[in-house]
Amino acid sequence: MMLFTLVILPLIGGFLACWSQRVHQDAPKWIAAICTLVTLAFLISIKLTNNIENLELWLVDEPRAWIPRLNITAHLAMDGLSFVLLLLTLLMGLVGLSSAWSEINQHKGFFYGNYLWTLAGIIGVFLAMDLLLFFVFWEVMLVPMYFLIAIWGNENRRYAALKFFLFTQAGGLLMLLSIIALTVIHYQQTGILSFDYQVLVQSPIQSELAKWICLGFIIAFIVKLPAFPFHTWLPDAHTQAPTPASIILAAVLLKTGGYGLLRFVLPLFPESAQFWAPLMMTLAGVSIIYGAIMAFSQTDLKRLVAYSSVSHMGFVLLGCFSFNFYALQGAVMQMLAHGLSTSALFMLVGLIQHRFHTRDLNHLGGLWHTLPKLSAMGLFFGVASLGMPGMGNFIAELLVLLGAFKQAPIFAIVASSGLILAAVYSLRMIQKSFFGMNLNLETSFSDKKSSDNSSKNDLDNSSAGLRAKRLNDAHTHHITDLSVKEGLTLMLMCLGLIIMGLHPQPIFTLVNSSLMEILSLIQSPLQPESPLLEVQL
Amino acid sequence: MSLHYLPAITLNIAILVLLLVIALKRSHQLAFYITGAGLFIACFSQCSLLRASHLSELHFSDELFSFSSMSVVLSVLLLGILIFIWLQLHTWLEKHEANHKEEFYLLLLLAGLGALGMIVSEHFASFFLSLELMSLSFVGLIAYSQSQPNSQEAGIKYLILSAVASAFMLMGIAIIYLQTGSLSFQYLAENLNNTTPSSMLFTIGLIFILIGLLFKLSLVPCHLWVADIFEGAPLPSTALLSTVSKLASFVVLWKLFHLGNWQENQVVLTLIGMVAVASMLIGNLLALLQNSILRILAFSSISHFGYLLILLFLFNHNADLLDNPTFPLEALLFYLSAYLITLTGAFSILMKLEEEKSLEALTGLFWSKPLHAASLSIVMLSLAGIPLTLGFMGKFYLVTASISYQVIWPLPFLVIASVIGLFFYLRVIMVMLSSTQTRHSSPSTAGEVASLWFIILLVMSLGTFPALFADTIKSVVG
């Protein structure tokens, strides 16, 4: 029952949080915080009692009959890869809570309930070993997320929530068809009816349909990732979502797509994955370049960060389809580093929006004078996201490029130009918001009510005289810098990124055995590669 | 005389007693209790039949009717739906009907009896009589509300269209009789195996009968009546029409398909295929921009029966990859009961809301009546087929069955239709989420709260832990 507890704790916590609003207005957020902490503590205690770093895989493994009619089991298991991602989920859950603490004032109980249910769903996705169970978690985590965006989001929240839900559901339905087709064909070939990953993985299906089944899985995952043609939901969802939901979305929800590719597509369809690899690598290259170019041309800070996510997740896709140990390590690292850096950026944007009621780059500027601490953090995470050596993102991108270069040099070259573009848009963002003319003071007044409508008009009439007048007003209107809690959260995330950048080996040690297993499954039809060296950085 | 007739006899007795009571003394309470007693005894006797004897011994047939474990389970489902609607009928009638409340129960029982007859019919005569008994009761049920002109209009529409459909069906039956000289389903099934089934006249007869059934199921070329009638009729009548009538009609369609070896008739198959695809897509497309929740449910029911039609292709289809010959039947029973339970839930939630008709009336329901809104959202998610609800398990069974029988071509349409469907199911939820100012609302009674929780628990628990339900269905079918 240990792993079930991980899912059930936030589930029950969500109901408690919903109910507790009747007792006290502030009770839900305390319950949410305590519940997340307890789950985190439980996860770490599982880790400490069972040594996952051993060679033995799938350490905590609990099959249990769920729908015996079709031999569907409630099978949860955890290995190093899932452990690392679960850790990320819960830590980012705490970060999200920290940013929700003062931002969410309406329907608190329902908000924290949905928040915890989303976390429960994501935890389930990372643990499920039965394909149908995986699918159930995969779909179920969307419903509370949909509510988070549709109720507490910004102006255009309904449209964004709907788009998010429809995109991911369409992908999900394709995956459902693929799962069933996979099971049926597997039964036809082996006589074993099972939805269990570990049964299915032992005998990859040989069928003409395998390619298309594989494609069904891939589409579901790259919609979530998101990669180029399916990315359009992401900027909308990020822009409209409340900051805590943005953080969860960027830090964890996108990672489920990468996790799915690593865990299911590569081992279950070794040959078909090879078949689709050129296409997927092309999509990855396009995502990297296109995301970066789009990020460059955005004026909305959240949209900018969202497009930068598209670009960064392109590296994950590239890494997954390079079929190479370094690239896989890089993909996992990229998921973790991107989770940290992007959620920190979203949190910062949320803080800026909270203070100035705008996210428009044209309305911001010179923040360094007013908010030195916040701007310093912004600079740090901006630089981290452009892949500065010494931070986790650098290690990740380096490894992906290294691995991809071995497999397909052209894609690696194309992708590495994404690094330059990342520098361009990150520096532009830093330049425009934290340095330069001090424009933000006027916006804090004029945009209080209409944050986005006036964006264009304001630019025209923001003459020097007006600005001077508003500078005087600024002294009466007090804008505070980071509070201790916010500062502490961001500092810890900085620390995390630096540790990942300077000493990534513990993380690699955790995930190596899982990645080895994935790679051994995919490379069995190919010629065995020269013995893999562990990367010592 | 077999014990199998007991439920129908009980209903008959209840109807007669009710008639007498209404003639002697009008009392809403009394009518309510008599109906309830009739339904409960019928349901109980049906259940005890399932319980007492071994499942394989449940087969019993005579000239007109035939009973099997499948028909027993379907009857239990039917009676269960009737009981659930009956439970809420009293408060609803008190609120919405000024005078003459008692006859509603009479018509309800008659419609129920007709549907019960259709489920077990084994002969065109018994089938047609039960069908007419049900249809004519529905005319009364739809036009029941004397204060509302819409309701009268809907009643007349249904009367005329249903008469046309019956005429088609009679014509079809006559043509088949001309060919074979028998009206018994059993005889037809045996006879058709030997003779060539694809004669022109026979096909025309089949298509005529199909048209009648498609009308009752409101599948696509014959669907134009459904929205107006759903909107015009009193809410409990709509609920009955969309559950009881469709259940009975679909069972007959399945029986004809199952017995008559239509699988070999290419014309009929093409026709059904086209109807299925068109129903899935057009039903959901029409529902997209509706502003009344009843119209949305009407169009969504078109597409749900479109999905169910896919299953008809699997019978007698020799491409079973799972070595599981009864699986299509299980899927059919699962999907049908999942959909009908969810839909009954949806209607009974709507019956508890005061201004139920337009979508705007639901604005901000989440903040004024959270329990109502939560249950309605769960029901909508179940209709959309989101996991952890009953609707998802139904869809999962359906897709598994059709993939394992290699009937792949309808599945892309199913995916497209589901995504379109999601749009309007979410729209209902979206409307309930909007407008944050809380309105004044009357407090809910204990019974209301209990039935809402019952709906939530039923839909969620059967969706989350379907093992027992799946095993029951397997043992019934197998």
UniProtKB/TrEMBL annotation, chain A:
<keyword id="KW-0812">Transmembrane</keyword>
<feature type="transmembrane region" description="Helical">
    <location>
        <begin position="374"/>
        <end position="396"/>
    </location>
</feature>
<dbReference type="InterPro" id="IPR003918">
    <property type="entry name" value="NADH_UbQ_OxRdtase"/>
</dbReference>
<feature type="domain" description="NADH:quinone oxidoreductase/Mrp antiporter transmembrane">
    <location>
        <begin position="128"/>
        <end position="417"/>
    </location>
</feature>
<feature type="transmembrane region" description="Helical">
    <location>
        <begin position="408"/>
        <end position="427"/>
    </location>
</feature>
<dbReference type="InterPro" id="IPR001750">
    <property type="entry name" value="ND/Mrp_TM"/>
</dbReference>
<comment type="similarity">
    <text>Belongs to the complex I subunit 4 family.</text>
</comment>
<keyword id="KW-1133">Transmembrane helix</keyword>
<feature type="transmembrane region" description="Helical">
    <location>
        <begin position="304"/>
        <end position="326"/>
    </location>
</feature>
<feature type="transmembrane region" description="Helical">
    <location>
        <begin position="30"/>
        <end position="49"/>
    </location>
</feature>
<feature type="transmembrane region" description="Helical">
    <location>
        <begin position="488"/>
        <end position="508"/>
    </location>
</feature>
<keyword id="KW-0472">Membrane</keyword>
<feature type="transmembrane region" description="Helical">
    <location>
        <begin position="115"/>
        <end position="143"/>
    </location>
</feature>
<feature type="transmembrane region" description="Helical">
    <location>
        <begin position="70"/>
        <end position="95"/>
    </location>
</feature>
<feature type="transmembrane region" description="Helical">
    <location>
        <begin position="247"/>
        <end position="269"/>
    </location>
</feature>
<protein>
    <recommendedName>
        <fullName>NADH-quinone oxidoreductase subunit M</fullName>
    </recommendedName>
</protein>
<feature type="transmembrane region" description="Helical">
    <location>
        <begin position="275"/>
        <end position="297"/>
    </location>
</feature>
<feature type="transmembrane region" description="Helical">
    <location>
        <begin position="209"/>
        <end position="227"/>
    </location>
</feature>
<feature type="transmembrane region" description="Helical">
    <location>
        <begin position="164"/>
        <end position="189"/>
    </location>
</feature>
<feature type="transmembrane region" description="Helical">
    <location>
        <begin position="332"/>
        <end position="353"/>
    </location>
</feature>
<dbReference type="Pfam" id="PF00361">
    <property type="entry name" value="Proton_antipo_M"/>
</dbReference>
<dbReference type="InterPro" id="IPR010227">
    <property type="entry name" value="NADH_Q_OxRdtase_chainM/4"/>
</dbReference>
Automatic annotation (TrEMBL), chain B:
<feature type="transmembrane region" description="Helical">
    <location>
        <begin position="327"/>
        <end position="350"/>
    </location>
</feature>
<dbReference type="InterPro" id="IPR010096">
    <property type="entry name" value="NADH-Q_OxRdtase_suN/2"/>
</dbReference>
<keyword id="KW-0472">Membrane</keyword>
<protein>
    <recommendedName>
        <fullName>NADH-quinone oxidoreductase subunit N</fullName>
        <ecNumber>7.1.1.-</ecNumber>
    </recommendedName>
</protein>
<feature type="transmembrane region" description="Helical">
    <location>
        <begin position="296"/>
        <end position="315"/>
    </location>
</feature>
<feature type="transmembrane region" description="Helical">
    <location>
        <begin position="158"/>
        <end position="180"/>
    </location>
</feature>
<keyword id="KW-0813">Transport</keyword>
<keyword id="KW-0874">Quinone</keyword>
<keyword id="KW-1278">Translocase</keyword>
<keyword id="KW-0520">NAD</keyword>
<keyword id="KW-0812">Transmembrane</keyword>
<feature type="transmembrane region" description="Helical">
    <location>
        <begin position="6"/>
        <end position="24"/>
    </location>
</feature>
<comment type="subunit">
    <text>NDH-1 is composed of 13 different subunits. Subunits NuoA, H, J, K, L, M, N constitute the membrane sector of the complex.</text>
</comment>
<comment type="function">
    <text>NDH-1 shuttles electrons from NADH, via FMN and iron-sulfur (Fe-S) centers, to quinones in the respiratory chain. The immediate electron acceptor for the enzyme in this species is believed to be ubiquinone. Couples the redox reaction to proton translocation (for every two electrons transferred, four hydrogen ions are translocated across the cytoplasmic membrane), and thus conserves the redox energy in a proton gradient.</text>
</comment>
<feature type="transmembrane region" description="Helical">
    <location>
        <begin position="31"/>
        <end position="52"/>
    </location>
</feature>
<keyword id="KW-0830">Ubiquinone</keyword>
<feature type="transmembrane region" description="Helical">
    <location>
        <begin position="407"/>
        <end position="428"/>
    </location>
</feature>
<feature type="transmembrane region" description="Helical">
    <location>
        <begin position="449"/>
        <end position="469"/>
    </location>
</feature>
<feature type="transmembrane region" description="Helical">
    <location>
        <begin position="127"/>
        <end position="146"/>
    </location>
</feature>
<feature type="transmembrane region" description="Helical">
    <location>
        <begin position="238"/>
        <end position="257"/>
    </location>
</feature>
<feature type="transmembrane region" description="Helical">
    <location>
        <begin position="200"/>
        <end position="226"/>
    </location>
</feature>
<keyword id="KW-1133">Transmembrane helix</keyword>
